[in-house]
Amino acid sequence: MSEAMGSIERVMATLSHSEPDHVPVYPILSGVTRNLVGADYKTWATDAGVCTDAFVKAAREFDIDCLVTLVDLSIECDAWGQEILYPENEAAHPNYNNCVIKEIEDYAKIEKVDYRTSKRMMFHIEVCKNLVEQVGQDKPIVAFVFGPLGVLSMLRHQQEMYMDLYDDRDAVKRAAAAINDTLKDYVNALIDTGVHAVMFDTLYSSGSIMSKAMWTEMEGGLVKELADICHERKVAVMIHNCGQKIYFDAQIESMNPIAISFLYPPDDCADLAECKAKYGGKITLIGCVPPVMTVTATDEEWDAYCKEQIDIMGKGGGYMLATGCEYPANAPFDRARRMIDIAKTYGRYNKAP
Fold first, then answer.
1. CATH code at 224?
2. I want to staple 288 with a disulfide (CB 3.0 to 4.6 A). Which of 40, 101, 324, 330 is the partner?
3. Could you tell me the pTM of the whole model?
4. Which of 117, 217, 130 lies closest to 177, judged by CA?
5. What confidence tens digit (pLDDT) does each residue in 230-282 have?
6. In a domain, 262, yes or no
7. Domain coverage including residue 44
């Protein structure tokens, strides 16, 4: 039986495709952590001290193996003056009745801005800095960044932006490039906090949203620029995409990630077993338990699904058990605890016979 490891040692072994003491585990505890510190959603999503305390408490109380700073997808769009709504019990989101880009001509107004003028970007930077200082010696801290096309869709409703791609693709491209110029400075600032990795959310690199050719044209080159910054500064690149039929191959070619967090098999694999066989030697796989199962499944079904993921993807290392997207913000913590216990027991490597 392998000797017990700390989280950083365990994750590093997994990323290098060797078998640690047990499968690393991270139910993506984000908004739900506000309940650990008795905060309302808006306070958690805007007060760096409160958000930090919530993440730290989750790390210590549940002994999860890493922290990903997924707060919501509206962090970056704040820099362009997008109005954000803060519901009481769900993630912040843009006011789509008051988008910055109201018509196609407004794309021309999107220019590079100074990330330091954005309260929410600076909030996120402070959270990352705090987490590195408080738990970064024990837990990998992964900064979460929405890709440029995703940020643009926060300024222009997703459906409208998609139609604009057909009406004036060059206008959309120019705006996405301007956003990316801002994100490059922002990513450098996040790296300056000492985070161990940056995880890019590439929402549109998914067969359920956009063709592979279109994604490569519209965002592939831009996210490569972001990933290159990380590679140059010796910070790991990770990807999160919980869409259906995501493009592992195009994203690997563009970004050379060390890990991909996902929910569904990629477009060129029939199932997760084929995904492990095809990509398990190239990247670390993170997932793929559906968050909805926290409220729809029985304990037995939940446990069986977590074990099945380990059976399919755990052999040889290179796998982290996790929810395929954010753990529901209003769900109880019992399923997270069960997942963690399964990783530590059922997910042990070199079990004694």
1. 3.20.20.210
2. 324
3. 0.96
4. 217
5. 999 999 999 999 999 999 999 999 999 999 999 999 999 999 999 999 999 99
6. yes
7. 7-345
